Amino acid sequence: MRGFLAVFERELSQRRLLAVLALGFGAVAVVMPILPGLHKGGSTLAELRGGMALGLALLLSALTAVYLGGSILASDLLERRLGFYFARPISGWALWAGKVAAAVALTFGAGLLVLLPAALFGGDLNLAGYWGLNVMDSPRGFVLWGIGLLFLLFAANAVSVMVRSRSPWIAFDLVALVVVAAVISDAWDRLRLVGIVPSGQPHGIDSLVWLTRSWAVVPLAAMAAAGAVQVLRGRTDLRRAHRALSGTLWGLLLAFAIGFEGFTFWMVSAGPEDLAGVTEVVAPPAGSSSPWVAMEGPAANRSGYSPRFLYDVTSGRTVRTGFSSPWWDVPVRISADGRRAVWLEFTESPYESPMVLYRLDLEAPGAQPVATPISFRFLPEGMAISPDGRRFAAVVFDRLTVDDVETGRLLAAVGLPRDTWQSRLAFPDPGHVRLYQVPADAGAQAALPEHAFDIVELDLATGKREATGRLSGGRGFVVWTLSPDGSRMILRTGSRLQLRDARTGELLASLGAGKQASASFLAGGRIAVPLSLPGARELQILAPDGTTELRRFRFEGVRKLALADQPAPGSLRIATSRTGDPRSPWEVRLLDLETGGVRSLGERKLAYLAPLSKNGGERLSLEGTEGVVWGAPFSVQERAVLKDASDRP
Amino acid sequence: MNPIVLEGMTVRYGDRLALDNVSLAVPEGSVYALLGRNGSGKSSLVRCLLGGQKPEAGRVLILDRDAWTERASALAQVGVVPEEPDAPPTMNARQLSRFCSRLYPAWDAAGMEARLKRFGISATTPFGQLSKGQKGQVSLALALAPAPRLLVLDDPTLGLDAVARKAVFGELIGELADRGITVFITTHDLAGIEPIADRVGVLRAGRLVLDEEMEALKGRFRRVSFPRAQAAGVSRLEALAPLAVAARGWEVEAVVSNYDEESFTASRLGKAEDPEVTALTLEEIFIALTGEVEEGNR
After folding, report:
1. In whole angstroms, what is the distance from residue A353 CA to residue A375 CA?
2. What angle do CA A105, A108, A110 make, to 5 degrees?
3. Which of A351, A392, A399, B96 is deepest in the core (most CB within 10 A)?
C-alpha cells in the first residue's frame, strides 16, 4: 500500500499543472459567452456557460485520457525510467495500480475542474437534451462517459507500448486484431441474422443488454489486465513489456471472441425441444393431411431468441424457418393443399437488408429450404400463398404484387389507394387474389376497435379489379379462416363466431357465441364445431351453409377434443382426452362423417405445444411422441397433427 | 547466509546466450567486484539480480528471497545504484528523498542531505539538470540512505571524471568502514575497486571464468621476465599455469596464474640469472584473463 500511495501521489504531483489547465478551460467556458456575437440562438447565458463547460470537460478529459494512457508507462519504459521504481521495494501491482489510479484521477479530475467555474458562476449544468448531451443528466450517462474514458486510457497505453517498442510483435498485434475482429464479426453476423440484437442497437432486445455490456467491459478488462501483466512480467524492458501486453491482451480477447463464437453456435443451435413454450403454431389448413406443423417460441435459457421451425411429425425432421422478435413477426404460410410452406427471412442484415421469400416443398423427401427470387425491401403488411402453393401475393405500402414462387416472375402488380390500413390477402383460387382493406377515407376509424374492410378481388389473368363487398359490423376481427374453396370465411368478431361470405362479406350464419367458441372448415366445405358440455364433448358437423346440422358426435367423459386431419373427405381423425391433461395419452378416433360411425385407433402419446407461461413455461418434448397437440388461440378447440398414415382408410 | 546466491543462472536473447549457467555466492559483509568486458553479461546478471528480468534457467536469491517473485520485499534492504541514473528528471534530490522515505522502513534523510553536501550537489536542482557525475552521486546517496544490508552498484563510475570517481569510492569506503554492509559492484574502474574488493568474479562471454578472493587472486598471478637466451625455460613454467607469453626485445615475459614462490624458486628457471618476478594489478590480471589472447595460451 505504501508503494501504491507513493506512486499515486508522485504521479499526481508531477502533473499538477493539468489542474491549472482544466481551470483555464473552465474559465474560458465562463467568459466566452459574454463576448459579443457569441450569445445567440435563444439560449440563456447560463445554458451557454453550462453547455460550453460540459463540452470542454468532455474534450479535455478525453484528451487527458489519451495523453496519460500513452505516456504514463510507455514513456517511462522508452526513456528507461521505470527502472527507478523497480529498483525500489515497490511491487509491480502497486506500480501499475498507482500509475493507473493517478491517471484515472487526473482524467476525471480534469473534467470536473473544467465544470467548476461554470458551477460557481451560474452555468446551467442540467443539460438534458442540450447539444445532444442529454445522456449526461443521468447516472447512466456518467457511467458511459467513465467507461469511454477508461477505454481511451487503456487503449492509448496498449497502442503506445506496441508502437514505441518497434518490435516485430506489432505484426502479431495486427494479425491478432484481424483474427479477433473476424471471429467476432462472424459470430455477430450470425447472431444478428437470427434476430438476436443486443439492447442499445436498433431493434435491440432488452434482455440481451448483458451482451452489449460485455462488449464494453471485456475489452476494457482485457486491456487493464494486459497493462498489469505488461508491468508485472515485462518490468523494465519495453520489448518484453510489449510481448507481455500483447500476449495477455490478445489471449484474453481471443478467448472472449471464441467464447462469443461458442455462445453464438449454442444460441442458434436451438431446436424445437429447446423452446420454453410455443407462442404460435401454424398447421396445414383443415382438410389436408400434411404431417407438417410450424411452431415458434422463445428458446429456453437463450434470452431474446425466438426461433421458428417446421416440424414433420412423421419423420421427426425439423427445418428452421427464421425467427420472431418484438420487431419482426411474420409467420410461416402453408398452402391450402399442404404441399408448400413459405416464409420471409433476412439474408444479410436483419431489419436492414431485403427480406427474401423462402419455400420448402413439404412432400418432397429431404427437401431443403430454397431462397426464391422474390424479395422485399420493406415488410409486407399483407401476404398470402395460393392454395396450390405456386403464387405469392403481398401488399407493400400502396402496391399489391403477385409473383410466381418458383421463378419469381411478376404475375401482377396493382396500385392501391394510399393510407390504407390492415391489408389482408387471400387466394380464393389460384387465378384470383382477394384483398381486405380498411379504406383511406376511414382513416379516423382505423384506430377504433370497430371498422369495416372493403373487399376487392383481382383477376390475375386480366388484371381486372372488382369491388365485391364490405366486411362490416365487426368488432376487432381477431381470427378469420378462409374455406378451402375461398367462398366463405369463419370470422371471430369480439365474442361472436360467424360464417360470412368471403367475397361479399355477407353474414351467412352464426356459429356460436362466447370467447371459447370455435369452428373449422373441413374438406368439401363442411364445418366442424366442437361443443363443450358438462361431462362430455360434442362435435357438430354443419353443412356448408353453416346452419344445417349434418351429424353430431358425442364423447362422454371427454374433457378435451382435438381436430386432427382428414385422411379422406368423408372421414375425420380426432384425438380426445379424458383427463384434460394434454401430456397424458390421447385416444385417437376415426369419425365417418357419412355414416356417423366412430372407430377408436388406440391411445397415442402426443407432444404438447404448451403456451408460454409466466413462470417460463415448459420445455417441449418430442421424443417418443406420435404427433403434436396444442390449443388453438381464442377457443376451447384443440388441434392435433398426427404421425403416420396407417390409420387412413 | 550469503546475501547474494546465483545458481545455474542462464539468460538467452533469441539464439544468443548472454549468461551461461552462472553460479556464485557473495558472502555477508564482503565487497564483490564483478568484472567483465562490454557484452560479457554483467548488465543481464544485475537485471536478474534485481528482479528486473527472469532468467531462463537457474535461481537468483537476494537476501534469501527469490529475486523474481519476491523482488519488492527483498529490495527493502537493498540499495541500488544503476548504470544509467534513471530517477524522474523533474524531481530534485529532496523530492526523491521524500518519495523514497515512504518505501523503506529506515530512511536517513539527514544522512542523505549530508552526503549531497559533501558531493556539493544542490538538493533543489531537478535531477534532469544535474551532470552525469552528479546524477551518479545522487543515486549513490539514495542507495545508502535506507541503511541497506546490501548495496548493488552497476558500474557506478561509468563516464565519471577522476574526481567524481574518487568521491564515489571514497563514500563507499566510508560506508563500509561504518557499517560493514555487503557490496556487489560491477565496474570497469579496476584501479578504483582494487583497494576495497574482497572477492572478484570475471565474466567472459556469459561464463563466469573466475570467482575468487582478491588476496588469493593477486597472490597467484605474477609476471615473470627472463632473458630471451633462456627461452627454453618457458617449458618449465607449465607448473605455474602461464596465461600469456610474449617476447619483448631481449626478454621473454610470461603471466602465470598459479605462482607459488617455493615451487618457483625450486625450479631451474628460478635458479637462472636475473629472473624478474613482479606482482600484477587487478587490471593486469583482468586483461590477462579476458584480453584477446589465443585460446591455446590460456
Report:
1. 10
2. 100
3. A392
Chain A residues touching residue B52 (CB < 8 angstroms):
83, 86, 235-237
A93–B contact, CB cutoff 8 A = no
Q: How far is B43 from chain A (nearest CA, A)?
A: 13
* Nearest partner of B67 among B7, B124, B17, judged by Cα: B7
CA A600, CA A591: separation in Å to the nearest integer?
Answer: 9
Chain A residues with CB under 8 Å of B102 CB are 2, 5-6
> Closest to B82 (Cβ–Cβ): which among A3, A83, A235?
A83
Q: DSSP letters along A343-360, please? A: EEEESSSTTTSPEEEEEE
C-alpha A42/C-alpha B187 separation (Å) is 75
For residues A343 and A322, is the Cβ–Cβ distance under 8 A? yes
| Residue that the C-alpha cell 557506478 belongs to | B156
Smallest Cα distance from B87 to chain A, Å: 5
Supply the pLDDT for residue B278. Answer: 87
The residues near A24 (Cβ < 8 Å, ≥ 6 apart) are none
pLDDT at residue A41, as a whole number: 63
Q: What single DSSP character describes residue A603?
A: E
Distance CA A56, CA A50 (A): 10
Burial of A404 (0-12, 13-18, 19+ CB in 10 A): middle
Amino acid identity, residue B182? T
At a CB cut-off of 8 Å and minimum separation 6, what does A363 contact?
A290, A339
Judge: A89–B72 Cβ closer than 8 Å, yes or no. yes
Q: Which tens digits make up the pLDDT trace of A1-45?
A: 888 999 999 889 888 899 999 999 989 888 887 777 666 666 777
With a cut of 80, say whether residue A516 has pLDDT above it: no
Distance of CA A188 to the CA centre of its chain: 14
Q: What is the DSSP string of A447-495?
A: TSS---EEEEEEETTT--EEEEEEE-S-SSEEEEEE-TTSSEEEEEETT
ipTM over 0.90: no
Three-state SS annotation for B168-193: HHHHHHHHHHHHCCEEEEECCCHHHH
Residue type, B63: L
Rounded to whole angstroms, the Cα distance separating A457 from A464 reads 8
Between CA A418 and CA A531 the distance in angstroms is 43
E strand spans, A225-381: 280-282, 292-296, 306-312, 318-324, 333-334, 340-346, 355-361, 370-376
- Asked if A277 contacts A608 with a C-beta cutoff of 8 angstroms, the reply is no
Query: In chain B, what is the greatest distance between 2 CA atoms, to the nearest angstrom?
Result: 70
- ∠ CA(A32), CA(A36), CA(A39), 5° rounding? 65
B49/B68 Cα distance (integer angstroms): 8
Q: Residue B159: beta bridge partners?
A: none
Q: Which residues of A touch B87 (CB under 8 A)?
A: 81, 84
Of A2, A84, A90, nearest to B88 by CB-CB distance is A84
Which backbone phi and psi does B29 adopt, to 5 degrees? 80, 0
pLDDT at A649: 45
Nearest CA in chain B to A86: B52
User: Which residues 105-144 in chain A show a CB within 8 A of chain B?
Assistant: none
pLDDT of residue A364: 87
Indicate the pairing of strand A382-385 with strand A391-396. Answer: antiparallel
- How far, in Å, CA of B67 to CA of A513, rounded? 89
What is the pTM assigned to this prediction? 0.77
CB A197 within 8 A of CB A203: yes
Chain B, nearest residue to A240 by Cα: B53
Q: What are the CA-CA distances from residue B57 to residues A182, A229, B18, B24, B49 (Å)?
A: 38, 21, 12, 15, 13
